[in-house]
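Intended use. Records like the one below are meant for learning the mapping from a protein sequence to its folded structure. Do not use them to infer anything beyond what is encoded.
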Amino acid sequence: MMMSGHIDPNSPLIPAQEMVLPTLQGDGKRRWINPALAKGKYWQRRRWLAYALIAFFVTLPHLRFAGKPIVLIDIVSREFTFFGHTFYPTDSGLLLLLLWTVFFTVMFVTAVGGRIWCGWGCPQTVYLEFLFRPIDRLFAGTAGKGGKPRKSLNTALQLARFAVYLVCSMFLAHTFLSYFVGTDRLAQWIRLSPWQHPTAFGVMAAATAGLMYNFMFFREQLCMVACPYGRFQSVMLDRKSLIVTYDIHRGEPRHKGKAIGTDKTGDCIDCGHCTAVCPTGIDIRNGLQMECIHCTQCIDACDGVMDKIGKPLGLIRYSSQDALAGKKHSWIRARTLIYPALALLASSLFLVLLTTKFAFDARILSSPGSPYAVTNSRTLQNNFRVRLRNRSNQQETYSIEILSPSSASVQWSDAAPTLTPNETKLVPIMVTAPVGITAANHGHIKAVVKIADGSGHSREIDLTLLGPG
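Structure written out for the chain above:
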């Protein structure tokens, strides 16, 4: 397919023989895509789903479960809260299982339905196609139809459009940041002067500027250049995966006009509607392409044309490469069995570990200085530090005892520690034992201590006592 755009014959540029990017003209300039709008059945479904997703994205950070946000990614505190459970860096196993569950689920959905996430659920597509492009059409005078603007925007309209974009981007930036800082802290920042929290204000300003750049300039290039998902589809798809595809056997050879002259002509009348509505600027008739996000606009556009000329619908439709080749379509195959099995295994392990997760973290560390001491009363003394983290939603006081050896004893160096929810403390402890306890074992002996909170949760931790050999 030749590149679109006119090249000056006197230019030293050599025209490309194939399209490098749908957003790139033959002379290297940006090709701005202003897709028309095909209001078919798929668009209606996508519109209502998009509105529901926008409402979901906005309200999710405000929802609470067990007194905590449903989702909170606190990078500064290195905490990840998910449905009332808070994960810390020490929960790397749980987080890995959660990521595996998401990864295998995405692989399964892609193997079955292609890039349905990109066209139907991705926030980039949802906001661009159902918020920002409608704003463009409103100011360009093509509301409800799309396509190239009927008029060039004067300075006043451009400023008004910029102001609307700015308000929307600021709102989205605050919504985006609420997933990372929480709605309570965000509300506090909004009420205070920027001079009282310059770092937070700078982050919000940068997020707003990034969204403005994305939706005003970068737009569909994010899907084609920055997002790796399209490049991964060759690995995740197979010939039985559902994709948005053009029936080349039925449509070719193309012809102009409504009537079919001979039996050698196909149903495609080369009207160009399928390319006019494509938000990434491709021609679906050229086969499966990385830039196709499965938005189904070409299906709606082609069905409308087929209905007008009295031809069966579905010249462009959801199908698979094997189905178009006349082979039997099957939902059951290796990919559709292995991916959900792996996702189920990862999610099951995640839930098992989550339900057995301790209500507090306790890790014993060595104290600086001499590894042990022998007192005047011939008692062996080892000093340690316990790093305690309260994972529960209430204040807890912790006790400690030694389970083995029976001749040893342990106590907090100070009073029993009390921790508020999510608080971490480094608490010193002292273990004492008869001085000869390590003599028979080359200067060391294994010990087990038990730490418990006031709610009945406990942990047993191994440590090594050092002494004379």
